[in-house]
Amino acid sequence: MAGAETPELAQSAVESGADLIEIGFPFSDPLADGPVIRAAAERALAEGMRTERCLECLAATRALVDIPLVPMTYSSLLEARGYVRFEEEARSAGATSLIVADLPIEAEPGLRRVQLVAPTTPAERLRLAAERTDGWLYLVSVTGTTGTRDSLSSQALDLVARARDATNVPLLLGFGISTPEQAAEAAAHADGVVVGSRAVQVAEEGPAALHDYVQSLRTAIDSATTSPSRR
Amino acid sequence: MTIGLYGPYGGRYVPETLVPALDELDEGWREAWADDAFRRELDELGREYAGRPTPLTLAERFAPGKRLYLKREDLLHTGAHKLNNALGQAVLARRLGKERIVAETGAGQHGVATATVCARFGFDCVVYMGSEDMRRQHPNVERMELLGAEVRPVEFGTRTLKEATSEAIRDWITNVETTHYLIGSCVGPHPYPEIVRELQSVIGLEAREQFLEAEGRLPDAVVACVGGGSNAIGIFAGFVDEANVRLIGVEARDAASLGDGRPGVLHGARSSLLADEDGQVLDAHSISAGLDYPGVGPEHAFLRDSGRATYVSATDDQAVAAFKRLAATEGIVPALEPAHALARAAEVDAELVLVCLSGRGDKDLDEVLRR
């Protein structure tokens, strides 16, 4: 979640092996988010993290790291600023793309963004999402909101298989992944893993804690993707 | 976005997980609404279970010098118009093969209506309610539990209807295969605003017939309170095509999404919202839990822009005064929500006035007497 510490946290995550960073631009009513991200958004808004300051935070982060940076937010922020202006300002502040959690695939076709698909998404919508997505496809591993789960769902692996059939774009699996074991299992199937809620929790303990956590994920993912069991 | 639009309002702004469920709901709804058997079942439930048609009552002592009529949805089973929508969506959910229902509630009237139909049809029922609303509408919490519903408190944010709605939608996202989300007002993603409008249109269609019978002509003005706007959209439905009938919606002064709002996205639809310049939704404030909501149905935003309906507001004090006056002059205790409509209806410059008395006030006695 965007905040004063974001640039330093991002740098620490990159040093320990993150390939991409999602930066939450908080919204007051985040329907796709579970308790951890919702509470983080509530705190960020209380600290005054409105769109202008989120863009400044993005630019400050971009000054420190070279990997892709992707703001994740909700359509109300884009409605308020104008979709075109929001995208222009985000990209000129260093955003590689955008994720808008409550904007279905067919909405706002002019807005280049990473599309999300879910276990409930039928094949024809999967293909449409892959056609329209900006760089990679975000696979939502569960029917549910963001937040840690005990294990990777069977829905997740099924969704990866269906997405592979539909497209060649890189597939990143997210929602409900928090432990190195889950990350390794996910990485054995998908092209990448997105960790949100747990990373937000660890980041609250500071850059050193985030460094160790990201490193544990990196190690687990690397060993899973170099092992012969990779599909 | 090209579906479910009211001018620039409405549409679907939801996580992708829900889109196939909304498509299924849209198709199921269209088939049901075109099916005579479905319509017959709703008519029969309305008559034999809910108590339709509700009467039209002339309020001569409340509004001397006018012919002011009350459409008595307060006399409907469970005490508010919410049951019209809950019954229709329950029959629809059964058609769709769902076994579990989730809902949000503010004042508790929609929660009670939902718990009631779940008891009647044998659905598992979970109702989300802000902890602040549970405090001020405690009798309704007890009613819902008696009816077999699980009432889940929502302890964050405003602790009112806005957060309860978000939590109900999150539950639906998580349990979408088995669960129908029984939304309580004409808000939310397409097709919900349309479903709720059609199911509540019975208020306006009945009132139109009754008014013609009583007065031999249509009213000059139709007045209803607007939170999300379901009783208003229902009574307006009987008159919206009659250009000579004025349609007036009454919001709570500090929850006036139409009077003070700007375009924005909340709970799945684009509408007029209380929001800041960055699109962050602001808190609404009202003595009436049912009007304490920063959004409004997209069709109301469209009716406002087109000029077909006008929207005014009433303060907490004005609503409480009207609440007490209707009790003292007519022997009818209204809910605080329609008390807002009553407060402004008495001063409308028209002779023949129809007011939607959307619910009864037992639930509000503590709140009013404490002041």
Task: Give an account of the 3D structure.
The complex is a heterodimer of chains A (231) and B (371). Chain A is an alpha/beta fold and 231 residues long. Chain A contains 10 helices and 7 strands. Chain A has a single domain (6-226), classed as TIM Barrel (Alpha-Beta Barrel), CATH 3.20.20. Chain A has helices spanning 6-15, 35-46, 51-62, 75-81, 83-92, 123-132, 154-166, 180-187, 197-203, 207-226; strands spanning 21-24, 69-73, 99-100, 116-117, 137-140, 171-174, 192-193. Chain A has a 4-stranded parallel sheet with strand order 4-5-6-7, with helices on one face. A 3-stranded parallel sheet of chain A has the order 1-2-3. The N and C termini of chain A lie far apart (33 Å). The model of chain A has no long low-confidence stretch (mean pLDDT 95). Chain B is α/β, with parallel strands linked by helices and 371 residues long. Chain B has 2 domains: 5-43 and 82-192, Rossmann fold (3-Layer(aba) Sandwich), CATH 3.40.50.1100; 51-81 and 197-369, Rossmann fold (3-Layer(aba) Sandwich), CATH 3.40.50.1100. The interface between A and B is large, with 45 and 38 residues.
CATH topology of chain A: TIM Barrel
| Helix run count of chain B | 13
Largest sheet of chain B: 6 strands, mixed
Q: Count every beta strand of chain B, where a strand is a DSSP E run of 2 or more residues.
A: 14
Order of H and E elements of chain A: HEHHEHHEEHEHEHEHH
Classify the helix fraction of chain B into a percent range. 40-55%
Distance between the ends of chain B: 47 Å
CATH class membership of chain A:
Alpha Beta
Overall mean pLDDT of chain B: 96
Q: Structural class given helices, strands, pairing of chain B?
A: alpha/beta
Our measurement of the CA-to-CA distance between the termini of chain A, rounded to an integer number of angstroms, reads 33 Å
- Tally of strands of chain A: 7
